[in-house]
Write a structure and sequence with these properties.
Elements (H helix, E strand, L loop, with lengths): L13 H8 L11 H20 L3 H24 L5 H26 L2 H23 L8 H22 L5 H21 L4
Length: about 200
């Protein structure tokens, strides 16, 4: 978090306004968006351990909490004009690590090998191409397609966990379908230079 030079937001989204008037009101000004991103980095291994040892009830709650911090840090950065270069890089990286760990542990175990490999492979390609663009001095940031992809991945993992917890086999194809849709959005995000 070396760079604390804040930039104003280019655009404020509808969900930013909602979060600013509700949840973000409880966060003191001393808590920065980058602090929330660091929290996500630190708590992702806890979620992964819960899932690995099949503590799915508490794991689902922990996953939702940690995934929700993705919306919080971005909305906080935009509504408080606290966007940093560090946040532009590490916020999406934290998301990708969270999702990749869930895919590696849960999707690999309950859906199939190739779905997991494609999701993780696309995330690695997106990170690598973003790194190359950054090294060339090209501005990198999340785009709409990448954000939709992230939330589809979260929904897919949540539905998969609900299927496991409540033994609802009928939800498994729905979870798979949502994750396949997330793969499509990952490809669009990659082709439109998103992260």
């Amino acid at each position: 978090m070396a760079n604390t030079n804040f930039e104003p937001a280019e655009e404020i989204y509808w969900h930013d306004r909602i979060l600013a008037k509700t949840v973000l009101r409880f966060f003191p000004k001393s808590i920065l968006p980058n602090h929330i991103t660091v929290f996500r980095f630190l708590t992702t291994p806890i979620v992964a351990v819960l899932m690995f040892y099949e503590h799915y009830y508490i794991g689902l709650f922990a996953f939702l909490l940690v995934a929700f911090t993705d919306a919080l840090d971005g909305s906080m950065a935009r509504t408080r004009n606290q966007i940093t270069e560090w946040g532009k890089i590490y916020d999406p990286l934290a998301d990708k690590i969270l999702i990749a760990s869930m895919v590696f542990i849960i999707v690999l175990r309950y859906i199939d090998f190739w779905t997991a490999i494609i999701i993780i492979g696309l995330e690695i390609i997106i990170i690598f191409t973003a790194w190359i663009r950054m090294k060339k001095g090209i501005k990198i940031q999340a785009n709409l397609w990448g954000k939709i992809k992230m939330w589809l991945q979260v929904i897919g993992v949540v539905v998969l966990l609900l299927s496991i917890i409540f033994n609802w086999a009928a939800l498994l194809p729905f979870a798979s379908g949502v994750l396949y849709l997330a793969i499509a959005f990952a490809i669009v995000s990659l082709l439109t230079y998103g992260i």
